[in-house]
Amino acid sequence: MRDAGGCRAPQAGSLGPLKGRFWAAAAAKEQSYEYGSARYLLLCGLGGMLSCGLTHTAVVPLDLVKCRMQVDPTKYKGIVSGFGVTVRDDGLRGLARGWAPTFLGYSLQGLFKFGLYEVFKMRYAELLGPEKAYRWRTGLYLAASAGAEFFADVALAPMEAVKVRIQTQPGFAGTLRAAAPRMYREEGPRAFYKGVAPLWLRPIPYTMMKFACFERTVEALYEHVVPKPQSQCTKAEQLAVTFVAGYIAGVFCAVVSHPADSVVSVLNKEKGSSALGVLQRLGFAGVWKGLFARIIMIGTLTALQWFIYDSVKVYFKLPRPPVAQAPKSPKKQK
After folding, report:
1. In 3D, which of 239, 233, 234 has the Cα closest to residue 311?
2. The pTM is what?
3. How many CB atoms within 10 Å of residue 330?
4. How does it assemble (predicted)?
5. Quick one: residue 229, left, alpha or beta (phi over 0 = left, psi -120 to 50 = alpha)?
6. For residue 125, which of 138, 110, 111, 112 has the smallest C-alpha distance?
7. What is the pLDDT, as a whole number, of residue 20?
8. What's the pLDDT tens digit per position in 18-43?
């Protein structure tokens, strides 16, 4: 994955099985873990857990209002009024409803999302070879992130269902300990996984945009905006580039994934409903309700996630190589 600087990969020939990779090398002195090793991937997963778990929990109040705008637009007509109605009905504590399933669910999602993205990206690059991997790198980012998110959503689905039920169904339950057992008693295991298929429709396009747009935005920022080469930038400056690229990617992510997000919110609230039925009932205008709130939330969220993830890699001195560079052809090398 790309750090603040870009595509992450070792110098060709420096790590055995990763010979010929199209990414350039990071400085060997700074690396405390070999790129692609089990420890490296586990620490990437840890960074993903922290980045997703902490950020999603931090924006629970905004997420709560957004979900309520989607499932009850007549009562929650806008962001500001939605906050006012929530505080009036439930008090300030009501804004934190659903924080526990949010933290647990998105921590698990982050573990698989970031960890598996690194795995899939490395394997796909090896299969393609250095020249094709560089030339088709956008497709490589899209394929790797889609595969990672597929498994991440299976881990997220149970806690997402509990969170939405707590936030959008008044009187159902106020805590994870109360909501999860009741859902299991009333609906069985299906209660936790009935939203996984529409859930794939939301985060998979979101994650594909999140990773591919971020990777290419970092390249563009270093090429056209940052006034000095990446190798001359401090870690703080590289993390600033990460934050900006993450926010830009987040705006696109919000737009791409919002219709499916609306469907999932309604689906998890209503017993016995289907994704197609909810989609038909909401209509074209209905699926875009709450988009502005989602843009604010996801833009900030995505920027912070990349910032935290890269900060974890800095802390553990994981490989942080430069942006993607075209490999030298055999003819040029001769």
Report:
1. 239
2. 0.75
3. 8
4. Interacts with PPIF; the interaction is impaired by CsA.
5. beta
6. 138
7. 39
8. 433 444 343 344 456 788 889 999 99
Cβ–Cβ under 8 Å, residues 220 and 241: no
Encoded amino acid at 158, one letter? P
d(CA 268, CA 166): 10
Task: Give yes or no for a contact between 264 and 199, defined as CB atoms under 8 angstroms apart.
Answer: yes
- Closest by Cα among 213, 195, 218, 307 to 254: 213
Residue 159: helix, strand or coil by DSSP?
helix
For 174, the token pair is 């106020």
Mean pLDDT over the full length of the chain? 81
Which is more confidently placed, 124 or 68?
124
Whole-number Å distance between alpha carbons of 66 and 257: 14
Coil, strand, or helix at residue 79?
helix
Q: What is the sign, positive or negative, of the torsion defined by CA atoms of 145, 56, 112, 270? A: negative
pLDDT (tens digit per residue) in 223-258: 889 888 887 888 888 899 999 999 999 888 888 877
Nearest residue to 141 (alpha-carbon basis) of 276, 311, 317, 9: 9
Nearest to 59 by CA among 297, 303, 307: 297
DSSP state at residue 222: I
Please state, in angstroms and as integers, the Cα–Cα distance from residue 35 to each residue in 2, 124, 159, 237, following that order: 12, 15, 32, 23
**Number of C-beta neighbours around residue 16 at 10 A:** 9
**Structural contact between residues 166 and 101, judged by C-beta atoms closer than 8 angstroms:** yes
Asked whether the beta carbons of 67 and 85 are under 8 A apart, the reply is: no
Please state whether 6 falls in left (phi above 0), alpha (psi between -120 and 50) or beta: left
